[in-house]
Design a protein that fits this description.
Length: 660
């Protein structure tokens, strides 16, 4: 028996020595070895040069170091020399859905996470590595838009501007179509505008339309998110690459149901039998973008809906020239004016703040008869550059609601700017000096100051994710509205106005003791709003005034398209000086803040996906000073019609918008 056992042992040793042992180990993985880090963190202010055209790239091709240099040590821990395959992945960690559900299955929402690899989406290969030997791998990578090369983000070459010749040519085409002109006449009547203006608007819409048919990869349609990124490398034997299914082999290929599988989940959960391992780097990237007015303010004719445009106020910082089309990070915002609403404003002018309009004077104005009033509509400028300009001394974009002259046609004119680079999710923090809006005697000047986000484009590529119960489109009103599964409209607001901190009696449960305030104080109301298009999917969808955490949410009715929270703040801490306003937009929550510095921000509102449908399409930043009808803010102590026209310009300043 002893001899037999010895023979078996000898045979097993011989067989064992012939058995192939596979193994690989990765150490010292630094995904940006050519950049200095602090505590294993690389903080980058993203260079936005050419981002309007090419999308955001991190690093930018025009940076001194246009790629991140990857370094890691690969050790062959097997007993046979072989070549290895490797692929580096990055993923945004700040704004993502969890990859795994509570039951351990893949979360389909993680398909929307922002991740990618090399632009070629291929594996890279090492030379043959001897058993027990190590080699240093040096490679490069950068983060780009549309990293999965999804077809829905492709299209025809983008139009960035239009000449008068382009617009007139399109208008002539419309006039030549009898059917089209019939529709034009009906739309003009519904909107209470001239037929010629409606022709102009339709021409702009046609020129603005971004055709989805084309082979150009519009990486700007799915820009990299700001925030923290992690990097991992998948490594295995070269001959095992073909064992991998698309999520690991090619991130650009979805599964049979159309869902993209996050490669981090795939390599951590589904490749135990395929010979690959995922190694995560201890280093992290923190990316933020900064937008200011140093590149000028572009005037986009495609966004200006009136046929006549006065260019006499154009200058080097504000114009519609090609010199600004790719360099200006902001453009003048032109409000969509509802001509179905008109005001009957007192025919008077006053510097409400500087001259301290009193309660007594306001009461006197409220008694004015119709023949002492001016009938009109809110308007936007006819002369871009007059009310929006870059102030070199302050280093800020000035926004100005212009003064009015009693001898001319008096109007109340809105003003604003919007960013030109869209992003999905982020912490948006704007440094702004909004004007004061209440006099010493607590009378409102009629202005609503707003910092908000709005959908980037009305196109299928920018639709929100589906609502099972259906969205009610923004521009359709009524209880019998038809619901749709998908829609492009999204909006998240901070609005500062003088009104009551409470809601009308009808918003509270029957027999409730409705709180009352006279609002005649130095406080302003800061309202946080998410436009969810009345999607009833969230389990906590509600109507009326309802408690949520320490706040009160409000929705007017079941088909109203937005949910709001109102909070009261002293004007001295909210307006009239340099302050920071912040919207933190995550996949499952929105948080609103205000503060005197980025380090001293206070939360004034929060919503999450249990009570409202959080938007997930790409949006732009907007800053406005606009006149609102008092009916938009029920229980306000002041009616817009009784507030005099401004005798002096009302000016605010936008210094920067940082997204991180």
């Amino acid at each position: 028996m002893i001899r037999v056992f010895g023979l078996l042992l000898l045979l097993s040793l011989i067989v064992g020595s012939c058995t192939e042992k596979r193994g690989v180990e990765v150490t010292n993985f630094n995904p940006f070895s050519n950049y200095p880090t602090q505590d294993s963190i690389l903080s980058v202010v993203v260079n936005l040069e050419d981002a309007i055209k090419n999308g955001i790239m991190i690093p930018n091709p025009k940076d001194e170091l246009p790629y991140f240099q990857i370094r890691f040590t690969l050790t062959n821990t097997g007993n046979k020399a072989r070549k290895f395959a490797y692929k580096v992945f990055y993923q945004n960690e700040s704004y993502k859905h969890k990859e795994e559900l509570e039951n351990g299955e893949y979360n389909p929402k993680a398909s929307d996470n922002f991740y990618g690899s090399w632009e070629s989406d291929d594996f890279h290969f090492t030379p043959k590595v001897e058993a027990g030997a190590s080699i240093e791998i040096i490679d490069s990578i950068r983060i780009i838009g549309n990293p999965r090369n999804e077809i829905k983000y492709f299209g025809a070459p983008r139009r960035y501007n239009a000449t008068l010749e382009d617009i007139n040519r399109q208008m002539d085409e419309i006039r030549s179509s009898g059917d089209w002109m019939a529709q034009i006449q009906q739309k003009a009547a519904d909107s209470k505008i001239e037929v010629e203006e409606q022709i102009y608007r339709d021409a702009l819409w046609m020129l603005n339309r971004n055709s989805p048919e084309g082979e150009e990869n519009h990486r700007w349609k799915r820009n990299p998110r700001m925030g923290t990124y992690r990097f991992s490398v998948a490594v295995g034997a070269m001959e095992d690459v073909d064992k991998l299914t698309p999520p690991g082999k090619f991130t650009s290929i979805a599964d049979t149901t159309g869902i993209f599988i996050d490669p981090f989940y795939y390599f951590e959960n589904e490749v135990s039998d395929k010979g690959f391992r995922l190694y995560e780097s201890p280093y992290r990237l923190k990316a933020l973008s900064k937008m200011d007015g140093t590149g000028g303010v572009f005037v986009n004719r495609l966004k200006y809906t009136r046929p006549k445009l006065d260019t006499s106020y154009y200058n080097k910082d504000v114009n519609d020239d090609d010199s600004l089309v790719f360099t200006a990070l902001f453009e003048q915002y032109f409000h969509d004016i509802n001509r179905n609403f008109s005001y009957k404003n007192v025919k008077a002018r006053k510097d409400v703040i500087g001259d301290n309009l009193t309660q007594k004077e306001y009461s006197r104005y409220s008694q004015y008869s119709d023949n002492q009033r001016v009938v009109g509509h809110f308007k936007v400028t006819e002369a871009p550059g007059r009310t929006v300009y870059y102030d070199d001394e302050k280093g800020a974009i000035a926004l100005q609601n212009p003064s009015q002259d009693l001898s001319g046609k008096m109007t109340k004119e809105n003003v604003g700017i919007n960013s030109r680079i869209g992003l999905q999710y982020g912490t948006y923090r704007a440094k702004i000096r909004f004007p004061e809006i209440i006099s010493e005697d607590h009378v409102w000047n009629g202005i609503t100051c707003a910092f908000w986000l709005i959908f980037q484009e009305e196109s299928e590529w920018n639709n929100r994710s589906s609502c099972v119960a259906g969205y009610i489109p923004k521009y359709i009103d009524g209880e019998t509205d038809v619901r749709v599964a998908e829609n492009h409209y999204s909006e998240i607001d901070i609005e500062i106005v003088k009104t009551s901190k409470y809601w009308p009696k009808s918003s509270y449960p029957p027999n409730s003791k409705v709180p009352i305030d006279d609002a005649l104080n130095n406080n302003v109301i800061v309202t946080a709003t998410n436009w969810d298009l009345a999607c009833t999917d969230p389990s906590g969808f509600s109507v009326g005034a309802n408690p949520f955490e320490e706040y009160t949410t409000h929705r007017w009715n079941h088909w109203y398209k937005a949910l709001s929270i109102k909070t009261e703040h002293d004007q001295n801490n909210t307006l009239g000086k340099d302050l920071y306003y912040e919207i933190q937009w995550k996949p499952n929550e929105i948080v609103w803040r205000i503060g005197s510095s980025p380090e001293e921000m206070r939360v004034f509102a929060r919503m999450d996906s249990t009570i409202t449908k959080i938007p997930d399409n790409q949006m732009l930043t907007v800053i406005t000073q606009e006149y609102h009808d008092a009916s938009w803010w029920p229980i306000t102590p002041f009616k817009q019609d009784n507030i005099p026209f401004p005798s002096k310009p009302i000016t605010g300043y936008v210094y920067e918008v940082v997204v991180e």
